[in-house]
Design brief:
By secondary structure, the protein is α+β, with helices and mostly antiparallel strands. The chain contains 9 helices and 14 strands.
Amino acid sequence: MAWLFLVYVLLGVPVDSVDPLVINTWSFRSASEAAWKTLQDGGSAVDAVEEGCGQCEKDQCDFTVGYGGSPDERGETTLDAMIMNGDTMEVGAVADLRRIKNAIGVARAVMEHTMHTLLVGESASIFAENMGFHNEDLTTNHSMSVYLKWMINNCQPNFWKDVTPDATKMCGPYKPSKPSHQKWSMLQHLTDVHNHDTVGMVVIHKSGQIAAGTSTNGLNHKVSGRVGDSPIVGAGAYADSTAGGAAATGDGDIIMRFLPSFRAVEYMRMGEDPTVACQKSISRMKKFYPEYFGAVICANTTGSYGAACTKTANLHQFNFMVYSASEHGPVEKVVDCL
């Protein structure tokens, strides 16, 4: 940090100014472009996160963000999102949001117009309507087709265990059965890595403000009411303008048990390089769940960034986007998984 301060002084750059940065999960170029444009137009880091994640919601990125994707076991698309201001440590989040397309916008409304952090389910939708968000059906021909094909395939795969009838062979409704003590594997759900494509974003403003956020429609065929890591502070994303920001993507049911985004920011606070911070934050998850897929992006207060991911049978690399002052546009980066 001392050498960076000296360089800034010698170049006549104000020491309270840093190079802006946008970094987000996956190859979601439009999200990077929208966030960067917001910064260039004078918006804050929080504005940029909202616009970047919001663009992915409009674009239905990989059908895993926004409306018309990842129908639950009843065929409904529901949304999760969060946004965090690293200057104030304020957070807004929504989970199991129904009939509202702009989940990240509702999350910001929670942060700015309530003293709460997380609103869920039907009550979150009512709140959104009261805040002026439009109520509309999130189901599309695409999501209905995905749902119907799943039903025809005897509801395979699904996320039930120790129930009757046998969830590996039949659709529900299910009732509990005696515990089998079987070690249930997520491997069947990892055949399509795009079942986990949350957009997670970290933005650094030239003032040094850091913000982070997420948006997703969760897992295909999830149990109705399921919430993953994306709207959970420290799991899906975390930001602290005195240390850095991080965001995660992958198997949210595992990620939320280990808070990798919070851990990564704390590693950066202790001086770790962003790449190392990302690696350390996911290593403990890999130890307990070797089949699990997860990835984390990290950026520290100087604008240095990194990423890390866990290797699975179907995924050996992780793609993410970076937009900075030194680039003429968003650049896709690739990291080898551990």
